[in-house]
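Re: the request from the purification team.
They wanted to know what the chain is likely to look like in 3D before they choose a buffer screen. I agreed to run a prediction and write the result into the notebook, where they can find it.
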Amino acid sequence: MGTAYFDELLNKNHWVQAIHTAVKGRARYKVNGLYHSEALKRYLESRLLEQKIILQASANSYTGNVLVIFTPDKSLNAIALLIQDILLNYRQKSSKSLASAAVTKENTAFVGGNNRNISDSAILPQISMQRQLNQTGSQLIPVLGAVGALVCATGLLYAYNLDEAILLLIQKLHTPLRDRIMISITFLGDPVVMLLSSLGLAISPLYYNRRREATILGIAGVGAILLNCLMKLLFGRARPALWKHIINVGQHSFPSGHAMVSIVIYGFIGYILAKQLPQWRFWIYALTVVLIAAIGFSRLYLGVHWLTDVTAGYAAGLLWLIFCILSLEATRKQLSENIQ
């Protein structure tokens, strides 16, 4: 069978679109129906890996793409037909399951005097979204624990008056080279710089098809800065003056704007990236934590914040980050319900 035959079959349903790559035996496919469907993602990966010609398969329910590494003797269209057969099998099984569920539902509704019909789109998206929300909730539990730990740490540090002793201990680490490094790190957490960066990212082509994420990213950045300014005015705590500052800072110290805004913006971006690239989730989260911690430490090293300023900034930022993430998942659920 020639290439024209494969192309004709693929064009009939438009379920699978090959995104050609220069590396032989490696291709990425756009799969219709994969977007926001964790169930189809798992089914595709498991069925593809059962095939001897498939060396590696990774589906992404946030981009709708499937990355496949296969034996070089197979063509892109042959792999596309394989994926299409798997999709067809999945839809057939889903239809049978839905038909069975519909019969059960209709019988139950008939007893109560209210007969209803159930469609394909009324069940699968709900199941997938509910699993996703449950997974998100389980991921946020340790984050809430971290908020509690930060609040307790802030209270203990303030109660035992350890702020000054810790800053004087950190001062002993100062060298000209470390000064330059810390100034560079603290620049990465500057609230204004981060706000402009997040707004720029929100309107960039990278986020063209991620409008919900882009919108909430912008809201997260603006909200974090406004909340931090409000808290600074309410508490009115003066900045440390244990040695001469080598950078320009404002008047109020509590809570740290760098700590609060960095954990919101970098944390939100890290969450989105980890969702889109689950195979790199650990490293994404690890690098995000290291970056945020480095920004907080740079504020202590430069002597412009007390440690309680930084821990309180992290705690407040984490709470706002949780709210933004929950808002994102809620909009996804609402969109899924509207599509039904």
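For the purification team: Confidence is low (pLDDT under 50) at residues 1-13, 105-129.
Please add any questions underneath this entry.
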